[in-house]
């Protein structure tokens, strides 16, 4: 029994396994210490998240390197077999490999980060987590009107960043242009209508115009963009039924619905206070009565 125990203890394979276990424990203790004492103290959550993910990947990489080094003398005869097996695995797991490549593009290419509102793979929502294989999104829209959460959490493969466009609502320019349309009856005070819409737009979203203008100027210096108007703008068109006013404005990507509600509320009050000087238009239908038809029937009877 003692001899068998000595044989097991002094077996090179057992020693290598023990070395791997000890090295594995040391590697992950160091990773956890670094994450807890250094990475967790970073102020910016985005950088903290990225560095923590990267440190975890380094831990896996060091573990694989440790195993390869320990068993390096045993791997020489399996080089060809491993090459063939690796090619087969790469073909079978090509979607996973592309997803990992997508994760690298997301993390280091600046496509989006946690907290951003994106449209990815046909899904719109806020990014909750960026995994190596999938991105977790809290979905908005669908059966819920407006940019509100519907409560559904969606996992989207990172490979979609290479297959479809990535729409980022909150990237380098965290604002959106939105507009509302107001139909006004013919014969109303057109100038006063335009004045009301302009004043309400400036009062509700005027502070965002200056903020968005500064960010847009930065983008102009970096990219080839024209000088866009970020202040509220009113345009007018006339159609067969009414005069249509359009108020175009800049809004935060998370406050489109709230801002639109406030604008409509203020505009309704202002127009109603004109006491008929400005009237809203609506679609009306006039039903024309069909004319009466007098039908005479001539009946020839035979006696």
User: Separation of termini?
Assistant: 136 Å
Report the total helices. 8
- Helicity, in percent? 40-55%
Return the CATH architecture of the largest domain: 2-Layer Sandwich
What is the CA-atom radius of gyration, in angstroms?
34 Å
Are there runs of 5+ residues with pLDDT below 50, and where? none
Question: Could you give the order of the helices and strands?
Answer: HHHHHEEEEHEEHEEH
| Total strands | 8
Strand order of the largest sheet: 4-3-2-1-5
Observed structural traits:
303 residues, alpha+beta, Helix Hairpins, SH3 type barrels, Alpha-Beta Plaits, 3 domains, 5-stranded antiparallel sheet, 3-stranded antiparallel sheet, 8 helices, 8 strands, 48% helix
Q: What is the strand and helix layout of this fold?
A:
Blueprint: H1 2-9, H2 12-37, H3 45-70, H4 79-92, H5 94-109, E1 117-120, E2 123-130, E3 134-140, E4 149-157, H6 160-163, E5 167-168, E6 175-184, H7 190-222, E7 233-238, E8 243-252, H8 256-272
Antiparallel strand pairs: 1-2, 1-5, 2-3, 3-4, 6-8, 7-8
Helix pairs in contact: 2-3, 7-8
Describe the fold and architecture.
The protein has 303 residues and is of the alpha+beta class. It contains eight helices and eight strands, in the order H-H-H-H-H-E-E-E-E-H-E-E-H-E-E-H. It has a five-stranded antiparallel β-sheet, with helices on one face. A three-stranded antiparallel β-sheet has the order 6-8-7, covered by helices on one side. The mean pLDDT is 78.
Question: TL;DR?
Answer:
This protein has 303 residues and is an alpha+beta fold.
